[in-house]
Amino acid sequence: MAVTRSVLCFGLILVFFVLQRGVFGLVIFPGCQAPFVQLSGRCYFFSCMQKSWSHAQAYCRSISSHLARITSQSENNMIVSYVRNYFSVNFSWWLGGNDMAQEGRWVWVGTNSVLSYTNWYPGEPSNNEGIEHCLELRSVITHRWNDAPCGHAKNFICEK
Ligand SMILES: [Ca+2]
Ligand SMILES: [Ca+2]
């Protein structure tokens, strides 16, 4: 009788484990794991921490992602509306674009592909004082893009 009860108990634990991992994990909570949020089938992390561009990219890598690569108008609109809804207008966000290797040649981190879609603010990229080589999405300029000095600490968006 005691053995039967133990087997039953073990069976229940096993069933619960499978339900929790298999059902809760895959069906009830699909998609992105915290701190990532899911937007149109992709996972983004909007960091309230502020870091230099390089440290931001290192942080994204440490959580198996990269600084965000915005490759279409629809992706840009989706990210802008999220940022507008949930964060202060004082925030500026590092994205994965940079022209560190060659001035004026803007590429995405990781893939090194040249930016096709862009949403620069008029007059940008300005490469002000010759030291602006990293891409930010800047809330105070109607959430458009600007090149800024990579060493400045800003909020950042990781994507995976
Ligand atoms: Ca530049
Ligand atoms: Ca600039």
From TrEMBL:
<dbReference type="InterPro" id="IPR016187">
    <property type="entry name" value="CTDL_fold"/>
</dbReference>
<dbReference type="InterPro" id="IPR001304">
    <property type="entry name" value="C-type_lectin-like"/>
</dbReference>
<dbReference type="InterPro" id="IPR016186">
    <property type="entry name" value="C-type_lectin-like/link_sf"/>
</dbReference>
<feature type="domain" description="C-type lectin">
    <location>
        <begin position="39"/>
        <end position="159"/>
    </location>
</feature>
<protein>
    <submittedName>
        <fullName>Perlucin-like</fullName>
    </submittedName>
</protein>
<dbReference type="InterPro" id="IPR050111">
    <property type="entry name" value="C-type_lectin/snaclec_domain"/>
</dbReference>
<dbReference type="InterPro" id="IPR018378">
    <property type="entry name" value="C-type_lectin_CS"/>
</dbReference>
<dbReference type="Pfam" id="PF00059">
    <property type="entry name" value="Lectin_C"/>
</dbReference>
<keyword id="KW-1015">Disulfide bond</keyword>
